[in-house]
Amino acid sequence: MIENNGYIPDELHEECGVFGVYDLDGNDVVSTIYFGLFALQHRGQESCGIAVSDTNGPKGKVRSCKGMGLVSEVFTPEQMESLNGNIGVGHVRYSTAGESSIHNTQPLVLNYVKGTLALAHNGNLVNTPQLRRELEYTGAIFQTTIDTEVIAYHIARERLNSKTAEEAVVRAMKKLSGAYSLVIMSPRKLIGARDPFGFHPLCIGKRDNAYILASETAALNAADAEFIRDVLPGEVVMIDEKGIHSDTSLCNQKIAKCVFEYIYFARPDTRFDGVSVYNSRIMAGRILAQTHPVEADVVVGVPDSGNAAALGYALEAGIPFGMAFVKNSYVGRTFIKPKQSMRASSVRIKLNVLPEVVAGKRVVMIDDSIVRGTTSAKIVKMLKSAGATEVHVRISSPPFLYPCYFGTDVPTGDQLIAHKHSVEEIRDLIGADSLGYLSVERLSDMLGGDTGFCDACFTGNYPIEPPSENIRGEYEQ
Ligand code: SF4
């Protein structure tokens, strides 16, 4: 039996989603940002915010609304009415560094000598403590515990010695180490920046005469915009009344896109750096069918990200695909976590099994990952209770062995089941009849041959030296 005594959630979270718009025709952008954030809700459900400004109005007049909760909970029609402006940025947040509180919500709005900056950030820096100390020793006072404020301060400082805001961003980026996809609103410009490794996505879209920056292409679709291109790893793009300008002076190193964006975090209807997330999941399922075949009657996927991989497995193996799980999509932040005595039912609230699909059948169950194993054990048990005669678990990622420092909450090794147990032991612990993982060697095949990705949580091969100090909440005492 697998214990989860601290009631640590057995699922992974992305840190954040970012969105920015500049409408050159002067139209209000708040509803576009709202729809964009709505489409990015899966990337963060703790808090969200929107900041807008008018490029033709007084410099530095920024209207913002932020709060704890889902996009649909935080923004009221009255607030939306009051957020007038033709340029703006938005953010959805899940905290992997810095506590979950109203102080740490984004976009961060900063007034300084050159005007106002509003920042929204996805990712984690690994040198936050050093950068923060550098600022504190020269008099900076911080209002939040998030690394985004450190980025904002460094940009503001560099701006004093730079001709333009985008030049200040490039100069600040030379000091930053880690993962960041940024959208920044200055009084007259929208700026997007992606760290040189390109850990997390950032793309550019256009609708009529409005330019958009978004974490995922699915958010462009929601805003009825057409995809133009991805922001390159290391690139800074600046949008002003003349259109898009680009600085690629930092685009010169090995790329390390987060491979788990494809496996789990991103929406299946997103394309990340030219690779379809849906196709990569189908391919992961096909590879699993090749490397871990089994005699079975039906293939089922654990929603949501397991579904496409299950279809891929079914297509490759010639086994029927079935929809065995009914998911409650309305389990949001306000869901009250069950007490110790009620824990067994927490998965059941989110997922229910259709006996019609699995009773009397040998089932292949595809999931995207196993973190601590508690959820997998419950789902296998639910399938067997519904009458499955055998449950063969296939995982569309390699075993998690190492923590992530780049904006996702893959925990430290001792909390990962694969760190302490062999595959056969995990199979036994989760009650499956067989268990197979996607191999590290086939991750590139999953991405159509792309090799520029990070797989550190599976291999320990970190593209950047892991931080020597705690970067998760060091300043919260
Ligand atoms: S360590 Fe894992 S989760 Fe973190 S960026 Fe790399 S692949 Fe993504």
From TrEMBL:
Coiled-coil boundaries: none
Cofactor binding notes: Binds 1 [4Fe-4S] cluster per subunit.
GO terms classed as biological process: 'de novo' IMP biosynthetic process; purine nucleobase biosynthetic process
Xref: Pfam families: GATase_7, Pribosyltran
Enzyme class: transferase
Catalyzed chemical reaction(s): 5-phospho-beta-D-ribosylamine + L-glutamate + diphosphate = 5-phospho-alpha-D-ribose 1-diphosphate + L-glutamine + H2O
EC annotation from Swiss-Prot or TrEMBL: 2.4.2.14
Residues binding [4Fe-4S] cluster: 258, 404, 454, 457
Domain Glutamine amidotransferase type-2 per the UniProt entry, residue ranges: 16-242
UniProt pathway: Purine metabolism; IMP biosynthesis via de novo pathway; N(1)-(5-phospho-D-ribosyl)glycinamide from 5-phospho-alpha-D-ribose 1-diphosphate: step 1/2
InterPro entries referenced in this protein's UniProt entry, alphabetically: GATase_2_dom, Ntn_hydrolases_N, PRTase-like, PRTase_dom, PurF, PurF_N
Binding site for Mg(2+): 305, 367-368
Keywords for the protein's UniProt record, in alphabetical order: 4Fe-4S, Glutamine amidotransferase, Glycosyltransferase, Iron, Iron-sulfur, Magnesium, Metal-binding, Purine biosynthesis, Transferase
UniProt GO MF annotations: 4 iron, 4 sulfur cluster binding; amidophosphoribosyltransferase activity; magnesium ion binding
Active site residues per record: 16 (nucleophile)
Cofactor section: [4Fe-4S] cluster; Mg(2+)
PANTHER family the record matches: AMIDOPHOSPHORIBOSYLTRANSFERASE
Stated role: Catalyzes the formation of phosphoribosylamine from phosphoribosylpyrophosphate (PRPP) and glutamine.
Family: In the C-terminal section; belongs to the purine/pyrimidine phosphoribosyltransferase family.
Record-linked HAMAP family: PurF
Name of the featured protein: Amidophosphoribosyltransferase
Organism: Mobilitalea sibirica
High-level lineage: Bacteria, Bacillati, Bacillota, Clostridia, Lachnospirales
